[in-house]
Design goal:
- It is a single chain.
- α9 (161-178) packs antiparallel against α10 (186-198).
- The protein is elongated.
- Helix content is 73%, strand content 0%.
- The protein has two domains: 1-60, Arc Repressor Mutant, subunit A; 62-207, Tetracycline Repressor, domain 2.
- The protein has helices at 2-34, 41-48, 52-58, 62-82, 91-109, 114-125, 128-133, 138-151, 161-178, 186-198, 205-209.
- It is an all-alpha fold and 214 residues long.
Length: 214
C-alpha cells in the first residue's frame, strides 16, 4: 500500500510531462505550418490529443509556448558555450562555436519565421529585470568567454565584455531575421558580420606576444 502511494505521484508527474511535451510539439508544428498569428489553439489541442482546457493548464497563452521555445534555444546555446569552459580555445574557437549553435537554430526555425517571432517576443518582454531573472542566459555565458579572451590578450580590454556580448548577439540574430535564408550562405554572412564587429577590437598577435594591448 505504501509502495503504491509512492508510485502514484511519480506516475502522474511522468504523465504530466508527457502531455506537456505533446502539446509543445503540436504547438510548434502548428506555428511552423500556419504562422504564430494564425495558429489555432483548438487545432493544437486536437493534434496533441488533449482537451482545449488541458492546453491552457500547461500554457496559459500561445506566447507561453514561444517562451519555452526561447528557453530551449538559450539552453542549447549555453550548453554549447559551457563546453568551452576549462579549455584553451581562443577567440576564433569561441566565435566558431557560437555560429555553429546559431546556425542550428536558423536551420530548424529560420524558414518558418518562428525565430523572428521568438525574438520579437523577447523584445516585447525583455526588460533588464526580466533578462536578469531568465535562466539560462546565453548573453551572460558569452560575456564570460569574451572576458576570458580579453584576459588572454586577444581583444582590447577597454570595452565592457557584457556590452560586447549584447552587440554580438543582437547583430547575429538581427542578420538572421533580416531576410530569407534561401540561396544565401548563412555561415559566410555571419562570419563576415563577426569580422566586421570585432575589427579594431582584436589585438595584433605581434603586439600580444610582447604583452602590449591597445
Amino acid at each position: 500500500m505504501v509502495e503504491a502511494s509512492l508510485e502514484q505521484p511519480g506516475k502522474r508527474q511522468r504523465q504530466r510531462a508527457d502531455t506537456h511535451a505533446r502539446i509543445f510539439d503540436a504547438a510548434v508544428a502548428e506555428f511552423m505550418r500556419a504562422g504564430f498569428a494564425e495558429a489555432q489553439i483548438p487545432r493544437i489541442a486536437a493534434a496533441a490529443g488533449v482537451a482545449r482546457g488541458t492546453f491552457y493548464f500547461h500554457f496559459p497563452t500561445k506566447e507561453h509556448v514561444l517562451l519555452e521555445v526561447s528557453e530551449r534555444i538559450q539552453a542549447e546555446a549555453v550548453a554549447t558555450l559551457e563546453a568551452l569552459r576549462g579549455g584553451d580555445g581562443g577567440l576564433d574557437d569561441l566565435m566558431e562555436t557560437l555560429l555553429d549553435s546559431v546556425l542550428r537554430v536558423d536551420a530548424a526555425l529560420g524558414e518558418s519565421n518562428l525565430l523572428r517571432e521568438v525574438l520579437a517576443l523577447q523584445i516585447r518582454i525583455g526588460t533588464e529585470a526580466q533578462r536578469a531573472e531568465a535562466e539560462p542566459d546565453v548573453r551572460l555565458e558569452l560575456t564570460h568567454h569574451l572576458a576570458r579572451v580579453m584576459q588572454r590578450g586577444e581583444l582590447r580590454g577597454d570595452v565592457d565584455p557584457e556590452r560586447l556580448a549584447t552587440v554580438v548577439l543582437t547583430s547575429v540574430f538581427g542578420l538572421l531575421v533580416a531576410g530569407p535564408a534561401a540561396e544565401v550562405d548563412r555561415r559566410a554572412e555571419l562570419e563576415l558580420l563577426i569580422d566586421m564587429l570585432l575589427q579594431g577590437m582584436r589585438v595584433d598577435p605581434a603586439r600580444r606576444s610582447l604583452g602590449v594591448q591597445a
